[in-house]
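Could you help me review a protein record that somebody else here produced? This is what I was given.
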Amino acid sequence: MTDAELDELLADCPRLFHMAEAGSWPAIRRHGLLSTSALLDLCDVAPERRPAIEAARRPAGIELQGPDGERILIRDNKPINDAALARVLDGGLVPEDWYRLLNGRVFFWLSEKRLRRLLEAGSYRAARHDVLTLDARALVEAHRDRIALSPINSGTTGRFPQRRGPETFRAIPDYPYAEWRRKRSKGERVVELTVDHGVPDVERFVLGLTRMGGGQPDEPLLT
């Protein structure tokens, strides 16, 4: 991706969206928006307990205690089916490798349409979620060297799982934006923007916080 293509992407997708557990903003504000692996570090989770959390499917969320005694929730990853995942992995990866890769990153949608689709998915439809809306350009300028882009929803297998592997997540200069421009409309040329480890200074990029889902109207919490 060239600088001109990045400018085009950020003009087409000026906002990023992150779906978090309802009520999680105080902990995010205090510690930053952290990956699963970074949260395990923060909560000093014992080494023998970590593989079941960061190298395996989580059918339900896992509650931890933060360093200040606050509740920290590791979200489930139940939209992934292990058998389906194993069939579509490339590069010699096994499901455990993929889970570790996902759990080392924080994920953002570039499309509100995709965010809404996730909120309405069977796995999450009944619950309320807190959605952070962020300034895409400001975050990219601050964390560009730790960003990787994905052309797929890497956290689901669904009915028709897409192939994935070591090349799914590409650094900005390596992302084949021109190829995806030929194949997809605006808003779909990059599906996920990810940041390695986390965004400790996330608060300065936040434009809004909204409680969504659960069949109820959106409720702005920060504007």
The first helix runs from residue 3 to 12. The CA atoms of residues 151 and 191 lie 5 Å apart. The first strand starts at residue 15 and ends at 21. The two ends are 32 Å apart (CA to CA).
